[in-house]
C-alpha cells in the first residue's frame, strides 16, 4: 500500500494465532528503504461498547504485548480509541500491579494480599482521555478480570 509518493507499507506476514487473534508484520519503507517494522496484534471478536466475547483471548493479548515491548513502544487503539482501548490499558496496568506484588511476595517470602484500586486506575485513564472504558459492562469486566487474574496468581 502506498501512503505517499515515497512512503509505502508492505504486509510481510499474517498469522491467525487463535480463531480471533491475528498478528501481522508490516514493513514501512521510505524512498524504497526500510525504516521500520511494525507488529500489529488484532483481536477480532470484541464488539464496541461491550466486554470481549472471549476473555481468555485477553490473557493471550497481554502475553503478545509483553513480548512486543522488547521491540519498541506499544500502541493500543480501537475504532474510537477509548472504550476497548481504555479497557485493555486498565487491565494491562492491573496485571502489572499484580505481577509486581507477586514478585515482592516471593522476594520477601510473605503473603501480602493484593491491594490496588481499579476505580483509581480507571479514573486516572479518564483524566488522560475522556470516555475511556465507555460502558458499565466494560467497567464491570475490568473488575471481573482483575479478580480472576489475582485468583490465578495468588490462590
Task: Supply the key terms.
alpha+beta; Protein-Tyrosine Phosphatase, Chain A; 45% helix; 21% strand
Characterization of this structure:
- The structure is a single chain.
- This protein is an alpha+beta fold.
- The chain has two domains: 44 residues; 110 residues, Protein tyrosine phosphatase superfamily (Protein-Tyrosine Phosphatase, Chain A), CATH 3.90.190.10.
- It contains four helices and three strands; from the N terminus they run E-E-E-H-H-H-H.
- A three-stranded antiparallel β-sheet has the order 1-2-3.
- A hairpin with a 2-residue loop joins strand 1 and strand 2.
- Helix 2 packs across helix 3.
- The longest helix has 26 residues.
- The N and C termini lie far apart (49 Å).
Look at the helices and sheets and give the structural class.
alpha+beta
Q: CATH-wise, what's the superfamily of the largest domain?
A: Protein tyrosine phosphatase superfamily
The total count of strands amounts to 3
Strand order, sheet with most strands: 1-2-3
pLDDT averaged over residues: 86
Number of helices: 4
Give the overall shape, derived from the CA principal axes. globular
CATH class value of the largest domain:
Alpha Beta
Kindly estimate the percentage of residues that lie in beta strands according to DSSP.
Answer: 15-25%
Task: Describe how the helices and strands are arranged.
Elements: E1 7-18, E2 21-30, E3 33-43, H1 56-68, H2 83-108, H3 118-128, H4 136-154
Antiparallel strand pairs: 1-2, 2-3
Helix pairs in contact: 2-3, 2-4
